[in-house]
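ESCALATION

Customer reports they have been waiting on this structure for their group meeting. Please prioritize. Original submission:
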Amino acid sequence: MGERITEIRGDAVGGKAAGPEAHLEACKCAQCGRVFFPRRTVCTECGSTERMMDFELRGPGKLYSYSVVHAAPKSFSPPYAVGYVDFPENVRVLGQIVGWSEALLAQGATMAIEWGPIAKEADGSLRESFVFRVADRHN
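Update from on-call: job pushed to the front of the queue and completed.
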């Protein structure tokens, strides 16, 4: 099995956490300092092939844009929201948004990183991933 490169870590067993300690495992270029998520081996900013350093991408982030999905693959339960979240390190991450309502979703909303189910497989098991949640209604 390959290395798991997209994960969230925090204060819970197995790296499935929510709250102020939650973060995404990203990387940072040793040459120019650019941060990337998900991790990669080559810096697309400066072209360096030197080792990328581990970096903890922490929230909160700001909602850049979102969409509500009404037609989805079988394992997903529409409607659900997805959005791009901008982090202070100049990284934009796409992820599912949980606990949303149209009233809460607005450009610039503060978003927290969490871990949670995003889909239900045919065998009944849950597919889990990092997710975002509106952390503060006020920008």
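Sent to customer with the following note: The CA atoms of residues 32 and 46 lie 7 Å apart.
Escalation resolved.
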